[in-house]
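Sanity check

After download, print the first record. It should look like this:
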Amino acid sequence: TIPAFSFVNQYGDSVTEKSLEGKIYVADFFFTSCPSICPVMHRNMLNVYSAFKSDAAIRILSLSIDPKHDSVPVLKKYADGLGIVGNSWWLLQGDKMATYNLSKSFLVTTPKEDAKEKFIHDGYFILVDKQKRIRGSYIGTDENEVKKLIEDIKVLKAEPDQISAK
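Expected structure tokens:
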């Protein structure tokens, strides 16, 4: 299961694991100055956002792996550029070690020696249920994988233990 955490979103609000109680969520790791896979990932994540932005039971978390650069104003500008409004998709930043530890709990790949500051950046979207269990991982740069993610969220929402969970 996913451990306790504390980050700040693009609005300057604190977001913890308690903010997600009773929520199904999708998480990914990115940085706003990423020139390679992040723009593709977030273009694809916009499809998830569009499908569930009015669903109070679903959240998207995009965690910055470059908190020195990705300040709250930078995250807000990035969110505005994507057309993100409201609280269904949070761009988060915080302590780099806390982000790294959370990424390990999501079971994403370990850092490569030549990676930016030895950090994970593999393009996966992670689906987590209301009980903080990982229910799937999807290649965020692959449109078909993202379509599968959207369908899997719909299936997950209909599971009895998700309907009754608060």
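If your output differs, re-run the checksum step. Summary of this record's structure: Residues 6-161 form a domain with the Glutaredoxin fold (CATH 3.40.30.10).
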